[in-house]
Amino acid sequence: MKAFHGDLALKQKYIDQIKSHMDADEIIKGKYWEDGKGGSIGCVLHSSYHEDYEDLIGLPVWFAYLQDEIFKRLPNIESKEFTLRLFKAINVDSDLEKIRTHFLIFLLEYILKKLQEEKFYGLKKTIDLAIDFFKNPNNANLSNRYNRCYKNVNFLRRYLDVVRTIFWAFTDIYNPIVRNAAREVCDSCNYNNDDSVTERFWVMISEKLIELVRNQTD
Fold first, then answer.
1. Where are the beta strands (DSSP E) in the chain?
2. pLDDT in tens, 10-33
3. Closest CA to 108 of 182, 49, 12
4. Overall pTM > 0.70
5. What count of Cα atoms within 13 Å lies in the side-chain half-sphere of residue 168?
6. Residue (of 157, 133, 156, 134) closest to 144 by Cα position
7. Which of 91, 124, 194, 207 has its CA 20 to 30 A from that of 157?
């Protein structure tokens, strides 16, 4: 799959369309697409059908869902600029399927750094196994290692929203072991309830996604 189906004019069409909505203050939260206004996906597709990304734009469906979730959770100023910045960064003819694993590894490694070894030992082992799986997806031995580790991990279940939605965009093709690890990370990572901390997290996530798509050239 090639971004914008290899057509520079198609990319410019969507950039112009997004910019027009942005200039008219028509990029809003709370609606996909209604009365000429909508969110990140709505102002691209003029609908709420994420699945149209592949046929219309040459972008993976998971990318559409990830774009949508990041937009919803960014601070208002950053969210209004996010879609235009993202589309400008996408290189014509690039295959964004190639960035999915890189993004997940980045996210898991970021979370790993935030966990205290003595308090989250079992969870850290689980995340390590998930990272190993993404880096070595054909290693069958990871299944047994994960199953042994998973039984010993305590679910802390504190504020589930911050990371969970990101994984939903990625888990459609991956091993159930990784899906379980992802859910466990989401249930266990504590970024506390400070809105400013949460917003900084999503800004960081958005910047990483833009960086990855900008650097993906084939």
1. 33-34, 37-38
2. 999 999 999 999 999 999 998 889
3. 182
4. yes
5. 13
6. 133
7. 207
